[in-house]
């Protein structure tokens, strides 16, 4: 796991406290989860006890994330969630927080976990720098990949939701794959992506998620 040194608090950054009295690059919660990650899968961990595995990214192009879940087949509640990542402090902190959120209070159901959004992770972390929003999206994708793997293993293909068909805007019928293709074709801003896809026009509530996906794909393919 790539533990990179985090900036010290007190420096000017792009995450600020709600009352505007403090500004820093990373919140204290982010730093806590980076220096003390929860539910990390150590090298000698027994992965055979888990019945769902998710993976996203590649070490060759940046962040890579692997997650292991233990799911109760009867209730479909997440009993345990472990992870490993080769990535920055934000990726580590986001995944650590995600592991807490899906297992607290006897564990989320898979349906509840699917409904969780990257914004929910960021809110619990106290915010992330704008250029690091994609780290919570990365975690969200790995979680969804693990959920699909669980349904694949138990023979319920009808419950598998492929990322390419994940609906972002039901009004314009734009998926995350459509946004990815728009970025690959040269759209680098919300305005240019909207011009290509019409996403969010008449449905502004989806725009925060769209902006995060644009950042994720832009950094993934263009650095």
Automatic annotation (TrEMBL):
GO terms for biological process: iron-sulfur cluster assembly. InterPro entries: NIF_FeS_clus_asmbl_NifU_N. GO terms for molecular function: iron ion binding; iron-sulfur cluster binding. Coiled coil: none annotated. Residues 26-154 form the NIF system FeS cluster assembly NifU N-terminal domain. SUPFAM superfamilies: SufE/NifU. PANTHER family: IRON-SULFUR CLUSTER ASSEMBLY ENZYME NIFU HOMOLOG (PTHR10093). This is Nitrogen-fixing NifU domain protein. The lineage of its organism: Bacteria, Candidatus Uhriibacteriota.
